[in-house]
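Re: Re: ligand-bound prediction request (bumping)

Still looking for help on this. To restate: I need the protein modeled with iron/sulfur cluster bound, output as structure tokens. Inputs repeated here so nobody has to scroll up.
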Amino acid sequence: MQSCAETRRQIRTAGLIARYDANVPRYTSYPTAAQFTRDIGPGEWAKWLGEVPAQDAVSIYVHIPFCRTLCWYCACNTRAVNRTQTIDTYVDLLVAEAGEVAARLGRRQAVRRLHLGGGTPNMLSPGTLGRLFHGLREAFDLRAVTEVAAELDPASLTKAWVDQAACEGLNRASLGVQDLSPRVQRAINRIEPFEIVDRAAGWLRDAGVASLNLDLMYGLPLQMQDDLLKTLSQVMTLRPERLSLFGYAHVPWLKPHQRLINLTDLPGPAERFAQSQAASAYLVDQGYEPIGLDHFARPGDDLAIAARAGRLHRNFQGYTVDDADTLIGLGASSISRSPQGYVQNHSQEVAWRAAVRAGELPVARGLEITADDRRRAEIIERLMCDFAVFLPGVDRRHGPAADRFVGALQRLQPMIEDGLVSYENGALAVTEQGRPFVRAICAAFDTSLAASTVRHGRLI
Ligand SMILES: C[S@@+](CC[C@H](N)C(=O)[O-])C[C@H]1O[C@@H](n2cnc3c(N)ncnc32)[C@H](O)[C@@H]1O
Ligand code: SF4
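Reply:
Sorry for the wait, this slipped through. Here it is.
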């Protein structure tokens, strides 16, 4: 039987969820992509690229917007494709885009980290993958790359792909797992028995890929806490260095195919909360360290080491140790960042293809970062990464905020009273209980949110 203390805790949690569960950004950047406008385009990006210091190593993100089939929950920018020609011509254009970027940089810039994301990068045939790397090496200096990472779909992965990628330097891989229960897999249109994940992990380990991440999800249709815990216990045999535990973001206004998911099959906020707490407790018990909001890493992993040292960062791919000033995004919908601002490529593949064919940088929109944005970005990044920030330190680095954060602190007052966050002598610290609500705490510093008409996913 449940204890009185446990019942009281559940009632209190339900009250907090009712009060603070709102549509808030995931803060993979500040300002968020919702603030990008058409005022910033190819001209600004060309200028900013021209200002990258010659000695700076940059990071590169390459987006592959193709999948074998579409998972109904998917919020990524991708589509189901079965024609190799579509993929091959896309890769030709990626190489062309890399050449355009290199021309604006004015040199073969050194690259420190290279990330292939999607979609599903293993939709490229091994030969096409080799061609992509050849093109990237022509445009950039990849000799001192420390990290080559790829997001992979276990069901469509082949040993030949893994071997080719390993030849190109792949040393970090992320496999999508989500949930291994056949009932949940049917409800999300993603049939992927454990044996498939096990096989993929084996190929990667055999090829010498030292770091393996697994993506898991909670809050999926028909998913129960036991499904998630059973999935976790199964994947523990793969000894992943890292795990991501994402709450399903139901955003059908952005991703209409999510309407294929039956709303009545979705767990409610209290159940979602319980699932994430149970999964987190399980992983901590297995020796993983919780990293930020939704990652877990073994204590010796770079991410855990960076988190303990306060050197964790957040970018469009989530939590990272990457501290490069310039991130160059290639491919449809990719976002790039430099100290001056953000730019995003055309999300529609047709527009992206047309711009690259015309020899242009395929930028659709962006944002120039102001001094106040920089200050707030640091606060939000530290809160998302460290769950704490010292406001006078931010003032020292960026100059004092004009409003002294009076508005933000007023907005935080109810959360301070509810014990989610404490504020003393300039030190803001998210409490253990407040961690799941950290995005709402960050939102207090977000000056653009109130005026924005963009709808984000739910907090819990
Ligand atoms: C690019 S996919 C991973 C690689 C590969 N395409 C796959 O699915 O196996 C990125 C990850 O985003 C997560 N994801 C996708 N849609 C999501 C949503 N609506 N809410 C939360 N996480 C989501 C999933 O965990 C997925 O594994
Ligand atoms: S989750 Fe991965 S495989 Fe499924 S549709 Fe999204 S990107 Fe493609």
